[in-house]
Each structure stands twice: as C-alpha cells, then as structure tokens.
Specification:
single chain; about 170 residues; 5-stranded mixed β-sheet; two-stranded antiparallel ribbon
Length: about 170
C-alpha cells in the first residue's frame, strides 16, 4: 500500500472524517479533474492545509473540500491515507460569515495569461504540468515560444502606438 505524504506544516490537524463541506454544490468537480487532483496528491503529497471553520464541535471546510474528498477516494482505492490533515482555522462569527469567507478565498482577483504562464513554466517538467488545471490556460501546448522579459519589453515598444490627439498608448496586435 503506497502512503500519501503530508508535505506541508500546520499547527493543527483534524481527522478527515470530521471535516464537513459548507459549500454544498457551489463548486463541482468533474471526474477528470478529480483524477488529476488525486494524481497530484499521489505525486506531490497533501501539500496545502485545509481552511476550516470550527463551529462548536463541527469542522466546516472553507477551502480544501475536494482535496479531502480526493484523500477519502484514494483510501478506498488502496492508498494509505493520513487519518488527519493539516488545517488552518478561519475565524467566523456564524455560518453566514463562514460562507462569505468561502467566496472570498475562492475569488480570483488576479488572472494568469497564456504568455506569462508559458514563460513561468518553461523550465518545469511536462509531467508536473499534467496535473494542473487553470481556467483559460492551455497547460500543455503553449501558443508561442516564450521570450525573456527584456526581449518582450523591446517587442512591446515596437508595437506601441500613441494617439496624436489624446496621447493614449496601445499595443498593436
């Protein structure tokens, strides 16, 4: 039986069977994505603590419900999974605030674009990228050969156009 390692540190651990989902059906994971998540956990370990809100004797997942579900499935599939996972406690006065915090942690204020993703990952092994999913990003087949930051700045300068009336600058495509 292959053990699943915990590859992060936390001050507290909670048994996976005691962690409940507060999100219900808010975020769904399809079978292919769950398969990728499980492969990632097998390869890299359980790498991030679960954010939980403790309400009396119950532990509600604010972030990490699918990782916990993946661990449970791996246990059924014959892997030696940890009984408890690292958690970070999230303070909330009530269920309404806990749900609000779930939405905040799920929010994505910054976006990854294809060019910067390709440049950032150019020195990573392809097998690492196979277990990653980022909406709107083609993980395995970049559209172009990434260039360095200095080279990109020179290219941007060449494409920049300024409006003679208002001074607004834009990049020609």
């Amino acid at each position: 039986m292959k053990p699943i390692k915990i590859t992060c540190e936390a001050k507290a651990f909670v048994e996976i069977d005691k962690i409940e989902s507060i999100q219900g059906e808010l975020k769904k994971i399809n079978p292919e994505s769950m398969k990728k998540l499980k492969q990632s956990i097998i390869k890299h370990g359980f790498s991030f603590p679960v954010f939980v809100w403790k309400n009396k004797t119950k532990y509600y997942s604010i972030d990490g419900v699918h990782r916990v579900k993946a661990l449970k499935e791996l246990g059924v599939e014959g892997y030696d999974v940890p009984v408890a996972v690292p958690v970070a406690y999230i303070n909330a006065r009530d269920r309404k605030q806990a749900k609000t915090l779930l939405l905040l942690v799920t929010s994505q204020y910054a976006k990854i674009d294809q060019y910067n993703f390709d440049d950032f990952t150019k020195d990573l092994d392809i097998d690492i990228l196979e277990s990653i999913e980022i909406e709107g990003i083609d993980i395995l087949t970049p559209d172009f050969e990434p260039v360095g930051i200095d080279e990109q700045a020179r290219l941007d300068e060449k494409k920049a156009t300024e409006c003679p009336q208002c001074g607004h600058t834009w990049i020609k495509k």
